[in-house]
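Sanity check

After download, print the first record. It should look like this:
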Amino acid sequence: MGLSGKEFLIRDLLIDDQYGVVKSTATVQDAAKKMKELGVPDLVVVEEGTEKVLGVIADFDIVQNAVAEGTDCSSAKVISTMYTIDPVNLNTPVSVAFTRMQNLRVNVVPVVENGKLVGVASIQDCWSYIPDMIPDERGLIPVSNTRVAEFWFASIAAVTAFILGILFPLAGVFGFFIADQADVMTVLGLADVRGGLLFFYLFEAHGTDFFVPILSLIEQGGAIWGAIIAISTLLLIFGIVGLLALIYTSFADTKNIHTGRMVRFFLPSVVVLLLVLEWIFFAIGFAVSSVPVVVGVDPVGLTMSILSMILVILAINRDYIFKEKGLIESEKPEVK
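Expected structure tokens:
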């Protein structure tokens, strides 16, 4: 299997030219003050007079090599605390710069051109430019760029799921259950002679010419309706959070930025769980009602809720949908 993607050079990166420099004759305390002044965690150490790059001093180095050792920071020189790393130039492969920082477990490497310092490259920037060494072969649909395809799929699926499963029930386009209007009025202790149907949405129920906030059912219907309100509120909140989590993690994948399981799996999964609980608690609410209520499922609402949950699950497991297009060609038998 070949490499997917080209080999990038340091010149392809957006070099950070907002770096700080400290002379080799400066003290550790001077370096710490300059870091605070510039709001940066690292300073490039250059030789007094020649401006030759000697290394980098980081806030972590000051803590580990000076403060923790009881060193007098007001007299100790930065060269005693800094780490030494060979600078890279604009034609250095990004993978080489990344490996250099990874081996030393440091965050930045100086970038020089014709012997002069032009900026620094961070390990995070380099990581996002390193091409995948192993093509994605887990999916089903062949595409030329799996991560871009996964980003667009997850984004569209997440937005669609939010609209169908949360936004439309919130706006009253379709709901969860359909009840006899007279029965619900009886539960509320009201007389209703008009009849008709009552459609239960996320936070309220709409009748022929009026609506009933679900909150008003708590007093007569019991705490179960309070739980429904709580679940509806959480569904709306986590629906937004889950939507953003899916879009963020899929975009982070395109930049090789690591994201944790909390954002990648847990937050979107909570949306599916809450949507299931919404249906279950609505059913329980009608089942334990003090007054028998004739109720039925809104078929459109149920279909859209199921579709919404499927879209979220597919967006979470987007890695298993697309595969590297080159694999299909490489798997073809060679014709002699």
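If your output differs, re-run the checksum step. Summary of this record's structure: The chain has eleven helices and 13 strands.
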